[in-house]
Design goal:
By secondary structure, this protein is α+β, with helices and mostly antiparallel strands. The protein folds into three domains: about 5-210, Jelly Rolls, CATH 2.60.120.10; about 220-270; about 275-325, Arc Repressor Mutant, subunit A (Orthogonal Bundle), CATH 1.10.10.60. The protein is built from twelve helices and 13 strands. Strands 3-4-5-12-7-10-13 form a seven-stranded antiparallel beta sheet. Helix 6 packs antiparallel against helix 7 (about 245-250). The longest helix is centred in the middle third of the chain and has 25 residues, at about 190-210.
């Protein structure tokens, strides 16, 4: 190993940074490990490290002299999970399609980066300091040894090809822990150990924060959608003797609660509601198009008692099966 590698094992992944300010000043720089903007733009300290395990850490500080826009764009374009927390200040992240995300000292974001850079907007005179961990999904997944927490699964799905954002609450304890874990002064292998420890501790804290205060329902991954579709098909193939919720959850590889939420998202109802609605819709079609008796139709779609069938049918359609049959 060369001497300079021994002294500084953390080499930054080259990243383009485009900066513009409200007074018309602009600057483009390439960040490899450490950089600063022109003094006329305000105070800045940009640090970027790539760890041997594939993770990238950013610790940046800005005090803009004027309102400022910053667009970070990694030069290799590799998809990554990126988790951003502000230690100080506030910032707004905007994308060309109009999507906007507000960062503060009490709210951070996990995001799945797919090669389209957003632009951060900072206010003049407001100190902003961020701590960011980024890594390809497979790198972070290795740390979990096949047991990726539900709160991170959507971000780490290697088949996903779209941007995704999940907010998480940030506590004073999280900010204090990260600040203490990243105090400057170390170099060489000690710095590598310091930063890797800080990154792993941070990921753990974010996962815990998401688990304790879950955000709005997690978006289904592509693989999960395929599995849910398979469970849905199995359900519709067995209207007379449908599989249990537990059996369908096993088919989909999801918890029963998450499967129900997935059915609500895709099919506009829980597993039970989809089963009931499908049974009754098929029953109405049979009543309208065949001469079969109502008792036989009820049995075909999974109802053993005509009274239960008639009650559910009227609740759904506002009319009894017999009334539809007589109106033909």
């Amino acid at each position: 190993m060369k001497d300079n590698e021994t002294e500084s094992p953390l080499q930054g992944l080259p990243t383009n940074l485009e900066v513009t300010t409200a007074d018309g000043e602009a600057e483009k720089i390439v960040i490899e490990q450490q950089a600063a903007l022109a003094e006329s733009m305000g105070e800045s300290d940009i640090q970027m490290f790539e760890l041997p395990n594939g993770m990238i850490i950013n610790i940046n500080r800005f005090v803009p002299a004027h309102d400022m826009s910053l667009a970070f764009d990694p030069m290799d374009g590799t998809p990554r999970m990126v988790s951003i927390m502000l230690l100080k200040g506030q910032a707004t992240l905007k994308y060309p399609n109009g999507d906007t995300y507000e960062f503060s000292q009490s709210q951070g974001y996990n995001m799945r980066y797919q090669g389209t850079p957003g632009t951060f907007h900072l206010k003049a005179g407001v100190e902003v300091k961020n701590f960011t961990v980024a890594a390809p999904p497979e790198v972070l997944a290795r740390f979990f040894e096949g047991e990726v927490p539900d709160v991170l699964r959507n971000m780490l799905d290697p088949e996903e090809e779209t941007h995704a954002f999940t907010p998480f609450p940030v506590t004073p304890e999280m900010r204090r822990s990260v600040t203490e874990m990243t105090i400057p002064g170390l170099s060489g292998q000690l710095q590598r150990i310091q930063m890797e420890s800080a990154a792993l501790m941070y990921i753990t804290m974010v996962a815990r924060a998401l688990d304790q205060a879950p955000p709005p329902r997690q978006r289904l991954t592509r693989a999960e959608r395929k599995n849910v579709a398979r469970a849905h098909e199995r359900l519709l193939d067995c209207l007379q003797e449908p599989p249990s919720l537990a059996e369908l959850a096993l088919t989909a590889g999801l918890s029963e609660k998450r499967l129900n939420n997935a059915f609500r998202e895709i099919y506009d109802g829980s597993v039970f509601e989809v089963l009931r609605n499908t049974r009754l819709s098929q029953a109405r079609q049979l009543i309208e198009q065949t001469d079969e008796p109502i008792k036989g139709i009820a049995w075909q779609v999974g109802y053993n008692h005509v009274s239960n069938f008639s009650r559910a049918f009227k609740d759904m359609f506002g009319v009894t099966p017999g009334a539809i049959k007589r109106s033909r």
